[in-house]
Design the sequence.
């Protein structure tokens, strides 16, 4: 199981402020919510997530949360209002502490895997990219965890050689 | 704060087996689920509860669970099939260990409160009835917990006099 | 299945800012939480919802969230402090994008149903009111979805005639 | 908005018994769980769903549940054991009440939509297929709900002509 | 069952603003999250809680939330970045309404129990401390609720003597 | 980073049937539930977990689930009835497929870590023990994941030498 550092991509710059949009939905189906998640991600939302909540009149419900660029507020709001049953969207801005990121590539017995390298002060984390591990697992007919752990081992060996 | 034991109602007999009906719902609104809970309870279900689940295609969903008399299976199934979007209902039977129950009444400074007395072997639990506490809290303009705790105190005093 | 536009009610005006009050509760029963939801809604809260959370020492817990008018903060806070076990309530204000709303009425084979009409720019949504559908379903002995879909059809026919 | 009944596909036959496989996972990432859901569905599981649970030592966890053909137990079990961190899978069989199903097609202003028709005794439900509505919504650049409701209207008109 | 007021501890002063740090985690195990909860509490976080959420690509996930002193932001952030897979932490500040607190002690048949006394204007709540009740329950071999309710009774008697 | 196989412990034998006990709780605090989880684990339950559910009358609630030896049913039932507010416990038996397990030990730069080795047919999984990693992380002042990944690397090297 050999590994090779193939490339250093550019550092990803990120903003310090992130917009959160929230809507509580008790008259929307789960099917429709899966659809709107895809629309919001396609429109550039950083993250879309659902939280199970409980609303009045014994209604199980879902809170839709969208994180994104504050500049994208109107575009994201319009998708939520168009694609869900809500009549209102609330929003606020959070500050963020973000690690700087770049990508390295290691080679495993199953093929190359990109590694996300995140740094903050003297802290560095290296994490195998899900998409690469998943693709190799499927094409090589091995469990996902086998590829993922092989990538972790390649990362450790890379570090011990530095 | 005085209390008086007002009555001993008959023991509630319960069956040893309980039916569970389950349906996973990803194309049903929360509004509609609140409605079906009421219908199922009105039809004699022992208990109806919702569990938040996550289904395929990024869909937040709800598992509807109904506990009831095995004899009531067809009636409860028909309500689920009529009132929800599901096309199937799965079911099984659990065994149950049930404490024997009767009701006593204590008097608090806010009025009388029924106490559920549950026994199983040498174990006895006494628990104030929610509905009584809630009604007294509203009519007497005191917090619910104030009435509930007053009922607990009355219960303890009753026990210490026995 | 005929429909008739019966009335145009006044547009509902809404504020741009909404208060959120939150409290994490690990020493409160679910019974008591159902009670406090009713108290908060009766006191004018816009929305009350529960989120299942997990707190320290292996405790399943509930986050109580209340949305309301910023002017109502002290009144809502007092209810939370009186009716729950929490010793603190945290709060913040969100901005909101709200669609303008008015109500129309359509007639279905089961009776009249109010339709909430929500508009925002060139977007218009028409949604049958739950309470009307639920009442007709019960009095006419048909499934809730039958009435709801009949109202949707009446809405579509109304739109195609405009 | 016209509609036309295009076809009657064969009734889908279904078994009366369904297998449930469960595993509690506290040492598995969500990324890996999304992967295993896809593997299980590809292997013929009827349904795969996740339930948020809380395990010992303050661990948020996920219960993986798989519904499938009792004949597929070993194949599904092997995927769970290979692709997740669990060392055990528990299983049981539920009985099921299943509505008979066939598909019809209606034509909306946005294109044709398959309708799932489910029958059980004198109960008949017609529900637009998600995949068709989603595809038309994307290609016609209209909200998902617009297509879905158009399909519901076409269904109602079909029924009133019968 | 006698009780005695043993002591009045000093009022606990609390700040009006509380920091919230949030991170969405889909590539972290539950085991690791239990570990980080302990680290954060040991570092002085006021509260740490987990919310089950649903992220893209069919991933069950957990939102880690930390409440703490705004002065502790960097220290708490560093623990989250070191001990979890997240590459970013978002944060905001809430205002708080906090009841003033001091502790009293009552004596029950099982031993002494500290009572948290919380006051806000004319509202006073007295709540038995969990740790004391749990310890007495274990050493006296009685159910937790037996000790808890005995403490509540002692509290009520104390109040009626004031 | 060297590793050494220190020992092969005996295979853990496990039963094919596992008991599940369930109780729905809407009148119990989270504090008390954390307490009962500890009691049940101390009494030999294999696993105890909580599922957030939603019960009637707008009550957030918790389903307590206990997995254990069918022989332990009465003992576990008695704890649930004594320590919670429920008046009934339902139970059933699942079949189980269990991987055979033994433990190996690897040595990392931070100290020795036990590895759980699970086998089923031609499938073998090796997973670092949480408790060992957590203890080393705390005593060596490094992140939990650093120890965990070092153990994974040691496992991989062990396998490549076999």
Sequence:
């Amino acid at each position: 199981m050999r590994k090779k550092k193939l490339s250093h991509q550019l550092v990803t710059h990120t903003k310090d402020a992130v917009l959160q949009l929230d809507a509580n939905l008790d008259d929307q189906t789960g099917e429709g919510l899966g659809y709107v998640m895809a629309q919001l991600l396609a429109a550039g939302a950083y993250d879309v997530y659902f939280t199970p909540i409980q609303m009045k009149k014994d209604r199980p419900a879902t809170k839709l949360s969208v994180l994104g660029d504050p500049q994208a507020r109107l575009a994201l709001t319009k998708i939520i209002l168009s694609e869900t049953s809500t009549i209102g969207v609330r929003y606020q801005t959070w500050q963020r502490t973000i690690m700087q990121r770049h990508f390295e590539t290691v080679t495993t017995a199953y093929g190359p895997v990109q590694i996300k390298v995140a740094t903050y002060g003297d802290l560095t984390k290296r994490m195998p990219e899900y998409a690469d591990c998943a693709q190799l697992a499927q094409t090589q007919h091995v469990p996902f965890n086998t590829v993922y752990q092989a990538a972790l081992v390649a990362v450790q060996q890379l570090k011990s050689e530095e």
Notes: The first helix of chain E runs from residue 30 to 42. Chain E touches chain C at residues 14, 18, 20, 37, 41, 47-52, 65, 67, 92, 94-99, 101, 116, 118, 120-121, 123, 125, 127, 130 (CB under 8 Å).
